[in-house]
Amino acid sequence: APEDSQTESRQKKVSDAKADAVILLNQAQASSGKRDYAKALGLLKKAAEIDVENHKISELRNELNQKLSKLKQLYSDYDKAFSARRILTASNILKEIISIVPDGSQTETRQKQVSEAKAEAANLMKQAQVSSEKRDYANALSLLEKAAEIDTENAEIPELNNNLNQKLQAAQKFKQQLNDLQKMNQYQNILQLCKESEVLPPEAFLEQVIETAKEKLLNYQSCFIEAKLQFNQGNYDDVERLCTNLSEECSWDGEITILLNAKGLIEKAEKALAKGRFRESRKLANSVLEIIPDNQAAKKVLKAVYNELKSKQQKKMLVRTAIGLAMALLLTV
Fold it and tell me: What does the alpha-carbon distance between residue 276 and residue 305 come to, in Å, rounded to a whole number?
């Protein structure tokens, strides 16, 4: 009877121990379900000390250890990715971490890191867009470069960068063309370039260029009109002076050469007229009108030639009439 009592006592202890182990196992499972793996492992350790033969305890311990090992690796991978500013990769790793440990200081810290990096990169991209709209492409590219340093895997940045580089190159080409035209004082072409170009420099700069070109074009046109007026009035010295000034400013303008050539022709026409070489004078004046159809000086020469020739013809007619009368008188005597 005493032996039976001891056996029962031992059996009860074993049964109680297994029950305690099961309780601890259940508590560990509950902690694992809450993602409190450290607590779960602590409970499993106690359960294993009580019931070393419970396979469920060892299976759960192995499962949790594997999760913690994976979690440790994920933390390491995340830190490497974030240090390399590979925010997309870091964000994807963080999702895996959250699937294992949805909360906790380490997870929250990393979530904050990713959110701040994305926000900073997005803000720089927005500033770059604003600079681009203001046609400050160099500054926009600088801002994008900073954004790329923060978020190296952002797919939008290379696309924006390529677009801005194209705009910058076009703007540089525009400036080069503008510079060449400004050197030659080609005001009309400057205005046309500003009107047609799709990629322009900052608005304030462009307004100043257009205003200056319009002002200089107006002055140039006024001087040219004055030169033509002096030409019509026969003030050839003034024509020479004005055309010389215009030529120094805009040597490319063929209209100045045409006016100077016309001036030379009309001077020759007037000299020929003065010397009585009416046919030569008329030919030269007609040449001027071919160049400048509305030229009054050439018309004046032609009128003078016509009057001279008419007067000459009338004189010839008078002479012939006089001779005829004289002959008639002689015959009647």
Answer: 9
Distances (CA, A) of 91 to 115, 119, 222: 9, 13, 68
Q: What pTM did the predictor assign?
A: 0.58
Instruction: List Cβ neighbours of 84 (8 Å cut-off, separation of 6 or more).
Output: 152
Q: What confidence tier does 4 reach under pLDDT thresholds 50, 70, 90?
A: low
User: What share of the chain has pLDDT > 70, as a percent?
Assistant: 94
10 token code pair: 């031992």
Cα distance between residue 287 and residue 264, in whole Å? 11
The band of 12, judged by pLDDT with boundaries at 50, 70 and 90, is: confident
| Tokens coding 74 | 């994920």
* Cα Rg of the chain, angstroms: 51
Q: What is the pLDDT of the chain when averaged over all its residues?
A: 85
User: CB of 256 within 8 A of CB of 239?
Assistant: no
Question: How many CB atoms within 10 Å of residue 147?
Answer: 24
CA distances from 189 to 178, 218, 243 (A): 9, 14, 21
Distance of CA 42 to the CA centre of its chain: 63
